Amino acid sequence: MSTFTSSTLQGPFVRIPAALFFLAKVVAGSLLITVAAQIAIPFWPVPMTLQTSALMAIALLASPSVAVGSVIAYIIEGALGLPVFSDFSSGISVLLGTTGGYIIGFIPMVHIISSLKHKGDSLVYRFGICLLGIAMPYIMGVSYLSLFVGGAAAIQLGFIPFIIKIPAAILFSIFGVDVVKAVRAK
């Protein structure tokens, strides 16, 4: 039987400091985001990566601090040159480029979802908080993209092609989390 205190996680064979356990969860989250960013599903007019689904799943499963920490770690890893962004890209240029606003928008996205998830558990409620959360990368991304291509073009290029994908990504995340929770319960 494991016990958790504010300073350690104890088990029958191991005693892990809580900070180290937190760090391990953050690194695992950033790794999941990285792997999901590389998986593209053919979709029209642009392929859909599993990144937003992974972000929502992390937010639905983890605490707000772990979810936000995972995204910040992911962004720092990419900024430092690790090939974590989609298509194995990296560097400050990605964050300052046309997709930078979307990536930074992941931070409020996971915070909103993770902070609100305990207030309800129905499919409709979880869909709603994921929809609210996923609005953040699109608001920030389209706003930042408009600096490069103008407002109308930013909406046309950076939001319209994804409208159909958003509900699919949300449902994929919710059902994926349900499977994880069911496996954990056994």
Draw up the topology in text.
Layout: E1 3-4, E2 8-10, E3 15-17, H1 18-38, E4 40-41, E5 48-49, H2 51-61, H3 64-79, H4 92-96, H5 100-116, H6 123-149, H7 151-158, H8 165-185
Antiparallel strand pairs: 1-2, 2-3, 4-5
Helix pairs in contact: 1-2, 1-3, 2-5, 2-8, 3-5, 5-6, 6-7, 6-8
Descriptive keywords:
186 residues; mainly alpha; Arp2/3 complex 21 kDa subunit ARPC3; two-stranded antiparallel ribbon; 8 helices; 5 strands; globular; disordered N terminus
What does this structure look like?
- This protein has 186 residues and is mainly α.
- The chain is built from 8 helices and 5 strands.
- It has one domain (23-185): Orthogonal Bundle (Arp2/3 complex 21 kDa subunit ARPC3), CATH 1.10.1760.
- The chain has helices at 18-38, 51-61, 64-79, 92-96, 100-116, 123-149, 151-158, 165-185, and strands spanning 3-4, 8-10, 15-17, 40-41, 48-49.
- The longest helix is centred in the C-terminal third of the chain and has 27 residues, at 123-149.
- The radius of gyration is 17 Å and the shape is globular.
- Mean pLDDT is 91; it is low at 1-5.
